[in-house]
Amino acid sequence: MTHRSLPAVGVLMIALALVAGCGSDDAGRPDAAASSVPAPVATDPPSGSSPSAPPSSASGAASPPSVTPQGPTERRPASPPPVVLPKRPTGAPGAKQVVDAFKAAGLKVPHPKDRSIDCGPDGLGLGCSELIATDAVTVYVFPDETSAGDIAQTWGGQSYQRGAVVLNYLEAKTPAAERPRYEKVLANLR
After folding, report:
1. Fewest Cβ atoms closer than 10 Å to its Cβ: which of 92, 95, 98, 110?
2. pTM of the prediction?
3. In which order are the strands placed within the sheet that holds 113-114?
């Protein structure tokens, strides 16, 4: 044997080892296991032994449990569960009502979008009850005044709170000089 044939012999040995270790291609057939492995023979247990003890193979190891075929996998819809938001307090104006009041007062509220889903599933996001965003101001309605106050304080000078309603100017294009007009409409809405 020459040094040039050693790599070919090595590859051949690896291939043989893989084929020997992999077994046959009968794994997908349900009757393949029965034809390649002898079935255990049921015998009466000797007296004094437990009748519920699993039968053992010739090597002393327990035989593997039988696998029963399962039915098709159930497909579930890909849509998320419905969002449940906390209720707004009785007497508090709704976000749409606030935006409509701004329009009636002649204030700009372009491109209103109901983004209440951003309050979070089951109210776990910001914890708001309603949310309408416009290009001028974003209107949040919270389930209580404490939650509204906490968020308004977090947003600092970029927000205004009146009861359970918070006006947010963080992403708005409303000049600071115009903001008191929105706040006055909200204050008079109750």
Report:
1. 110
2. 0.56
3. 113-114, 130-133, 138-141, 165-168, 159-162
